[in-house]
Amino acid sequence: MLDDGGELAVLDVREEGVYSRDGHFLLVSNVPLSVLELRVRSLVPRLATRIVVCDGGEGLAAKAAEKLIAGGYADVRVLDGGTPAWAAAGFRLYTGVYVLSKAFGEYIQHEDAPQEVTATELSEWQKTGKDIVVVDSRPPAEFRRNSIPGAFDCPSAELPYRMKDFVRTPQTTVVVNCGGRTRSIIGAQVLINAGFPNPVYALKDGTQGWKLAGFTLNHGCEERVPLPTDKGLAWAQQAAARVAKRYGIRSIDYAGLQALRADAARTVYLLDVRNPEEFERGHWPGALSAPGGQLVQATDTFIAVRPAVIVLTDNDSVRATMTASWLVQMGHDEVYVLAHGDVPEAAECGPAPEVLLEGVVLCEATVSTAELKSLLDAGGAQVIDLDSSLRYREGHIPGAWHVVRSRLAEQLKKIPEASMLVFTATEQALAALAAADAAQRVKTPVKVLSGGTDTWRAAGFALETGDTRMTGAADDLSYRALDRKDNVEQAMREYLSWEIELVHAVASDPDFRFRRYPAAS
After folding, report:
1. Among 95, 148, 458, 495, whose Cα sits 20 to 30 Å from the Cα of 203?
2. CB-CB contact of 281 with 60 (8 Å)
3. How far is CA 405 from CA 36, 97, 234, 356, 470, in A?
């Protein structure tokens, strides 16, 4: 099925930490059973698409298949025996997350060989006053978590768009970093591919390499590379035109997009690669937010169907073209940039609306933050938090218990009895799904915190931190090395070694489909 040319989505429904640890296919999207109803319609928008659901043999895939079929998907199958059977048949499994994207970064390093600078060398450059600028190619939230001292944030798809105005002189050296390797490499190479005139380096091993070299990271920084001037934008558009020619990037107008969408036999993704703030100010109807750097870094979280039509949009064709150039190199055959990118007056604003799986049941009973505070003060409620274990550790409502929705049946038994159970999560829909599940299992009244934990925080109420009252293992998430509580340096070294070796692992995989293009003349 992977090789027959027809559309196929392979969905692994284990929790991310289990999926990462125990191994999975190369061409797969991880859609945990906990959030299946929230994610699958965006990942697999066409109900007639063939879907193969898999797990590690735990029985989760069968449950997911039942949900998908009930939700209207017409061609759903479960992989017999799951990933253990795949391995037993002689096929390869991969640990980690975003494997295809991570391997692609190493492929670009191997093939294009952008210059690298080590943390020690960069520190020496800073000390000696060398004319350099350090740009972090991760999204702002990751940049705030940890960053190289003196760095500015500029997600990788934004680099050719913003950097021409930002550097002081054509001699200024630009160093691009991320948390590890992929976005450092991709960020450096996108500037090189754009014809950026300055010396460009990727920071070898990113912030992890900086930490391993014994240097201190900053936390909570907000410095960002500003938007381009008209002159800077003109240069970026010329650069994008050169990149489009080299990689054969096709342009399509809105009428052409509508014609593609009218074909009921094809899956079409319309992805807006601008930053989320721009997206929310106005975007084409039906578009999903997929910031360009993240789309390349974690492609399987946005695109589950292969082959599919991918249409990228921004407001000036720069970021869309640069992102498209990476997707075609990754092996996607039909990638377009939507021309005349300025969105119409009838644009949609705000976040893209959630599209839930058909027929799901949500708990509609809610409490406000003020009502919940009164209930807790009176000892009249028990809070159940559905967020990731990391988000829970970083801040949750005092007294809350952490639960993973796919394990709700067992984990509910560990929560003390209360006169009411109040479910909360950053995504209210996730809490509402879990509360509806719980209502089928307990006699206790269940409600949902309106607006989720963020409204509690916004109201100024106290938060508790730490891993207290966990009802199970914190393997719902694949933890970054710097987010681990112990053996951090060992985890960083293991991660960086894993990333470097990926390109050799996938090169012998029959599903390896990366492409080379002639160098610019």
Report:
1. 95
2. no
3. 11, 21, 49, 16, 13
